[in-house]
Design goal:
6-stranded mixed beta sheet, 3-stranded antiparallel beta sheet, 4 helices
């Protein structure tokens, strides 16, 4: 099961800024495996990979004091990553063409969530690897997912 965290101290230019961080298991649920495979279809940034916002994004909301992050991706990038769509019947409410790969929740302070930084970082690691280990490892690059594209 995907693990969701809210952490500050990630951005050295804004140490007080908090960001959602999702950790997916490459051997986990179908959604986790699909998201892990998308890393090879991202563009490389400075210490991270980026999924183009028109291909996929992170939808965030608050529900009864819990931060909810849903990952939505269009079918074409999934198919390019070798992911079949049959196992993903749910669709994004923002764009019904986009497939919902997974949803994760964590308890979070609503005031802190109101100040969350824009990208959602996604790391790929097994359940025995802690978030602190991932953050300390300069060779572990996350996939950065922007919020949904603006509605037209």
């Amino acid at each position: 099961m995907a693990r969701l965290y809210v952490r500050s101290g990630i951005d050295p230019d804004a140490p007080e800024a908090a960001f959602p961080i999702l950790v997916v298991d490459p051997d986990g649920t179908p959604g986790e495996r699909a998201l892990a495979r998308l890393g090879g279809h991202c563009y490389e940034g400075e210490g991270s990979f980026h999924l183009v916002r028109t291909d996929g994004w992170a939808e965030r909301s608050l529900d009864s004091g819990r931060l909810v992050v849903r990952i939505a991706v269009h079918p074409v990038p999934l198919q390019q990553a070798g992911v079949g769509l049959a196992g993903f019947p749910e669709r994004s409410t923002i764009d019904p063409d986009a497939v919902l790969l997974l949803s994760a929740r964590t308890t979070a302070d609503p005031a802190r969530c109101a100040r969350l930084g824009e990208p959602t970082a996604v790391f790929t690691a097994g359940p025995d690897v802690t978030l602190d280990q991932l953050l300390a490892d300069d060779e572990e690059w996350p996939i950065m997912l922007a919020p949904p594209p603006p509605s037209t």
